[in-house]
Q: What sequence folds into this?
């Protein structure tokens, strides 16, 4: 019976315990490469849905903002007949149409009665109204030609974003550059909208002044030709032909209708809320952190240490309205060895967030934000414990996944229109985060 | 044997059901090893899972020409060693004086598996691991010294100590049993 005890031990077969398999299985599932990808896939799907819903909300908002304007202007689309042949291109090579018309309608021209002034005109004030009236009466019979002459940089043009709207002739010194002193986009829009309706009214009163028409048409024609020396002859000919055609055939009522309709369209477009603003955010800074237990797995949690956690986040925020934004991104967190006693902590955290950014000062916004992350983390740390009467250090490691929600409150400061720095006080183990945002575009 | 290889093949592809089958198949085998090294049943279960987890994640390194059981056994034993390696207290050379031939086979042969395991689990980590590696796994003192990062003489001393402790415990248990028998009669 030599070595019998060895055989006894090696042949010993403990009973199977299904709970052990359950524990291992959950560990395998959480660590299986596919599983995190599935989670990420779901996350992306959710984010896509969020974005889609954002567009739906945006669509509803746009529709809502259009409705009262359309009803108030009471335009009968079916009765619209252009009457005047459309121009192929304006001076900047743009297609003739809404934008150029919008310009002539939206912006007060600085042209005086002699047709030579190039002054900038503030939007508000009664003295300018006279000028507008004369201008619009001059334009009344040559709407399209006027459109071709003046080119607007609308807020949709990135060059002109940021609350200022410019009107420039680009090629011509004889035409005005309007640079309103109003910096608040919303105020500016409201103002423009109001002015637009006023112009319309004044215009209608002036439309019937036939004698004015002929002299104004000549004036415009001369102005256009005089101020476009560098344009090609074909363009000049086209403009002249248009003016002549308008003079010969155009009905004042048609021109008026056009102006009315396009004026309404302008009013509608400038009432549309500022919808799309995409911001790239990057938070490369240290964050102080009180680590939550659940961030460190289930079975072998140490007491939450205070630690400095480095977080690198890259996010994309889309503004659904003027103040409401939603975003998604990816965060990578790790701790320095010297803090927390955690020798190797890495966390990958795709996140989504929703926030409100409210302007309180000229360039300063208050931010309130809520977010959710899917943490996929791995960690290793040393834990001291008493074993057999001696204090020993045990290295523990593992991985875990979890969901975490956080809330933040802070502010952002925007400079040079596209650059923002921001700071947030956040929950969920972070105390403070600062970062940078770049506005990809806005309108 | 063919079935196991097929099962391993499926496990390599990450098939969860096959993993469960393989787990069931080798659970007792793994647990019987970890019970000898662990301090209690919970630790033994944790070691089993650690070993399986490692095995599942490194199945691509398994050479199908070799016996899976041997490959897996090596993983289990290594997991046990790793777990307790850092807990080993420093052994000084004066323990070498304790080396002597201690024969406990004849006493151990009388015990059941559960009793044997209980005895082993009462040993300090370093002694228990050395005893297991030498007496059951068949490691030499040189190999043990390499695994545990101690000297070979320390390994020998630990083995002697382990046997002495086992003998003391057995004697204690026997005395206790005799007293108990006297009282009951």
A:
């Amino acid at each position: 019976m030599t070595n019998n005890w060895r055989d006894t031990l090696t042949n010993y077969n403990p009973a199977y315990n299904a709970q052990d398999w359950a524990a291992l299985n959950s560990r395998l599932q959480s660590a299986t490469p596919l599983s995190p990808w599935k989670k990420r896939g779901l996350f992306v799907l959710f984010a896509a849905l969020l974005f889609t819903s954002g567009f739906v909300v945006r669509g509803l908002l746009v529709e809502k903002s259009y409705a009262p304007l359309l009803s108030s202007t009471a335009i009968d689309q079916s009765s619209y007949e252009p009457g005047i042949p459309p121009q192929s291109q304006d001076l900047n090579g743009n297609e003739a149409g809404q934008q150029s018309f919008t310009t002539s309608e939206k912006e007060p021209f600085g042209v005086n009665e002699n047709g030579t002034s190039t002054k900038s005109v503030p939007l508000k004030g009664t003295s300018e109204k006279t000028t507008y009236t004369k201008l619009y009466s001059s334009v009344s019979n040559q709407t399209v030609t006027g459109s071709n002459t003046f080119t607007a940089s609308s807020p949709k043009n990135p060059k002109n974003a940021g609350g200022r709207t410019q009107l420039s002739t680009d090629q011509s010194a004889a035409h005005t550059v309007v640079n309103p002193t109003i910096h608040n986009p919303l105020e500016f829009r409201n103002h423009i909208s109001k002015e637009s309706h006023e112009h319309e009214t004044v215009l209608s009163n002036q439309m019937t002044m036939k004698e004015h028409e002929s002299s104004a048409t000549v004036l415009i024609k001369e102005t256009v030709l005089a101020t476009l020396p560098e344009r090609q002859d074909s363009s000049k000919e086209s403009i002249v032909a248009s003016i002549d055609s308008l003079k010969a055939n155009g009905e004042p009522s048609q021109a008026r209708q056009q102006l009315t309709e396009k004026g309404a369209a302008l009013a509608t477009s400038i009432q549309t809320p500022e919808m799309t603003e995409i911001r790239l955010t990057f938070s490369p800074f240290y964050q102080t952190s009180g680590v939550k237990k659940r961030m460190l797995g289930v079975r072998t949690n140490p007491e939450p240490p205070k630690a400095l956690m480095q977080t690198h986040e890259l996010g994309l925020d889309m503004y659904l309205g003027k103040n409401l934004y939603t975003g998604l991104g990816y965060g990578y967190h790790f701790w320095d060895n010297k803090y927390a006693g955690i020798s190797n902590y890495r966390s990958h955290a795709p996140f989504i967030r929703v926030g409100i950014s409210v302007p309180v000062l000229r360039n300063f916004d208050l931010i309130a934000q809520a977010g959710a992350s899917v943490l996929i983390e791995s960690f290793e740390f040393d834990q001291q414990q008493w074993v057999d009467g001696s204090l020993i250090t045990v290295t523990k490691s593992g991985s875990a996944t979890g969901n975490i929600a956080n809330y933040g409150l802070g502010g952002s400061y925007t400079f040079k229109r596209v650059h923002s720095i921001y700071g947030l006080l956040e929950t969920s183990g972070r105390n403070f985060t600062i970062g940078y945002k770049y506005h990809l575009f806005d309108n | 044997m063919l079935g196991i290889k097929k099962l391993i093949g499926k496990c390599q592809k990450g098939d969860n059901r096959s993993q469960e089958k393989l787990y069931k198949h080798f659970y007792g085998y793994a647990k019987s090893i970890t019970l000898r090294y662990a301090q209690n049943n919970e630790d033994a279960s944790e070691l089993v899972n650690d070993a399986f987890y490692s095995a599942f994640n490194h199945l691509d390194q398994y050479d199908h020409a070799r016996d899976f059981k041997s490959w897996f056994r090596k993983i289990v034993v290594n997991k046990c060693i790793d777990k307790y390696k850092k807990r080993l207290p420093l052994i000084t050379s004066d323990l070498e004086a304790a080396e002597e031939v201690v024969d406990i086979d004849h006493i151990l042969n009388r015990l059941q598996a559960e009793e044997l395991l209980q005895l082993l689990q009462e040993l300090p980590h370093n002694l228990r691991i050395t005893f297991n590696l030498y007496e059951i796994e068949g490691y030499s003192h040189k190999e043990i010294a390499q695994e545990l990062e101690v000297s070979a003489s320390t390994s020998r001393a630990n083995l002697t100590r382990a046997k002495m402790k086992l003998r003391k415990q057995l004697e204690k248990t026997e005395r206790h049993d005799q007293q108990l028998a006297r009282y009951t009669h």
Observations:
- The two ends of chain B are 53 Å apart (CA to CA).
